[in-house]
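Moderator note: this is an archived Q&A kept for reference. The question asked for a predicted structure of one protein chain; the sequence and the answer are reproduced below.
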Amino acid sequence: MDYVLKRLKWSIVFVLFACIATPAFSAVGTGTISGTVYDSSGTTPITSGVGFYCGLVLYSRGVCGEMNIVQSISANTVDGTYTFSDIAAGTYYVRANATNYLDEWWASPLSQIAQSSAQTVLVSDGGALTGIDFQLDKGASISGTLYKQDGVTPVTGESVTVN
């Protein structure tokens, strides 16, 4: 019985070590993924403005189910297009974010807010995937004043998170 428990213990340690020690996917290849980031209409590209940013992140899923960043890039500020280059053959997920828009994961026919609704993008060796487009929904803002418990004194120097 002790032998079985020791063996089980070492098996668990090995699996935990594999999950922690496995590096992010980093193989370089020749594949590409490209598309355009549009507003929710799907026809108007999201482009530049003062303080504007539009970024995309390419992820792979690790051996323990975690999402690992493979590449991060910015979309073209003139026409909203983007291209991930030098991608190894594999299965990926793509996420877009832009100033004043909701972060969304790629899915067809419409990008999705929930990671669980993301669809995979399969890149073959040397493959060029096009049309991996996003249709980002406009974000909203909340404004107001946060008061201390007395209801009179404003809270300053603190950040507020809304879930």
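Archived answer notes: The chain has a mean pLDDT of 84.
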